[in-house]
């Protein structure tokens, strides 16, 4: 019997217009009423994730920044935090700026960039209600740590520089794609799988009793951790390959389908 569901937001629970369907909301509410712990596990900034948690009426902790933060929504405090130290990513920042690659740095409420451009416009098209602040060169920006960092550019260029970054990246830093044009970096202890495991352990839930639902490579760790890893129909082929079940797409209420099939027995 499943007791915990960890669910990604973008391209999984959220439709292409970044909304949650009434069918998905209803299925989540019914699962929660049945005693299931439904938790949001997202790469989004804490402020943006909070909006969807509140919309769903959930009062359980949720994970933001790919698992770098686990937030108690009642107290509004982080119960877990694992951030990238500036010294661990400074060389990557220098390299990216030298090659004119756009960089996003974060805190819980804001995004910090060298300058606004087409990539900030693209990011703001779905990360609504989050302030973007121009600070000049991020090499000189005064920060001690960040929950995550994103390099944004065309995929071909990112593939090229990622191979070079592999040559000098710290062992304490994760590097992965979360979208076609997003090459992300987090602390080695900031993964969705680790966050889901921490919450499962907190509640005394075995991994065999966990479902994880996602679509992209930032979801891989939680899809592998869960007793049942589910990829939605629009997921990357690599994620479908490691999943135990393929659900309908985010546009076809894939999350509701999973809850109805494995939790609500419909």
What top-tier CATH class of the largest domain fits best? Answer: Alpha Beta
Number of domains: 2
Residue stretches low in confidence (pLDDT < 50, at least 5 long) are none
Q: What portion of the residues fall into strands of 2 or more residues?
A: 15-25%
Query: What does the largest sheet look like?
Result: 6 strands, mixed
Protein described:
This protein is of the alpha/beta class and about 270 residues long. The protein folds into two domains: about 5-80 and about 190-260, HAD superfamily/HAD-like (Rossmann fold, 3-Layer(aba) Sandwich), CATH 3.40.50.1000; about 85-185, Hypothetical Protein, Haloacid Dehalogenase-like Hydrolase, Chain: A, domain 2 (2-Layer Sandwich). The chain is built from ten helices and 16 strands. The chain has helices at about 10-15, 20-35, 45-55, 85-100, 120-125, 155-165, 190-200, 220-225, 235-240, 255-260; strands at about 5, 35-40, 60-65, 70, 75-80, 85, 100-105, 110-115, 130-135, 145, 150, 175-180, 180-185, 210-215, 230, 245. The strands form four sheets. It has a six-stranded mixed sheet, with helices on both faces. Strands 2-1-14-15-16 form a five-stranded parallel sheet. Strands 3-4-5 form a three-stranded antiparallel sheet, sandwiched between helices. Strand 4 and strand 5 form a beta hairpin. Helix 2 packs parallel to helix 10 (about 255-260). The longest helix is centred in the middle third of the chain and has 13 residues, at about 85-100. It is globular. About 45% of the residues are buried.
């Amino acid at each position: 019997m499943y007791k915990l569901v960890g669910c990604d937001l973008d391209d999984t629970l959220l439709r292409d217009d970044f909304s949650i369907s009434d069918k998905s909301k209803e299925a989540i509410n019914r699962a929660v009423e049945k005693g299931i712990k439904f938790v949001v596990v997202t790469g989004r900034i804490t402020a943006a994730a909070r909006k969807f948690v509140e919309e769903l009426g959930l009062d359980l902790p949720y994970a933001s920044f790919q698992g770098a933060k686990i937030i108690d929504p009642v107290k509004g405090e982080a119960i877990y935090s694992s951030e990238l130290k500036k010294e661990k990513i400074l060389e990557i920042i220098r390299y990216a700026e030298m090659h004119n690659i756009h960089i996003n740095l974060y805190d819980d409420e804001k995004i910090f960039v060298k300058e606004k451009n087409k990539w900030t416009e693209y990011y703001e098209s779905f990360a609504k209600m989050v302030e973007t602040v121009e600070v000049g060169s991020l090499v000189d920006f005064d920060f001690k740590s960040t929950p995550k960092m994103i390099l944004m550019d065309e995929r071909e260029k990112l593939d090229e520089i990622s191979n070079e970054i592999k040559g000098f990246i710290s062992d304490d830093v994760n590097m992965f794609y979360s979208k076609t044009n997003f090459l992300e970096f987090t602390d080695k202890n900031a993964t969705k799988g680790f966050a889901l495991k921490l919450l499962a352990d907190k509640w005394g839930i075995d991994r065999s009793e966990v479902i994880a639902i996602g679509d992209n490579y930032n979801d891989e760790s939680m899809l592998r951790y869960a007793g049942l890893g589910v990829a939605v129909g629009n997921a990357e082929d690599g994620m479908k390959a490691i999943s135990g079940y393929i659900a309908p797409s985010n546009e076809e209420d894939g999350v509701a389908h999973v809850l109805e099939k494995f939790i609500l027995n419909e």
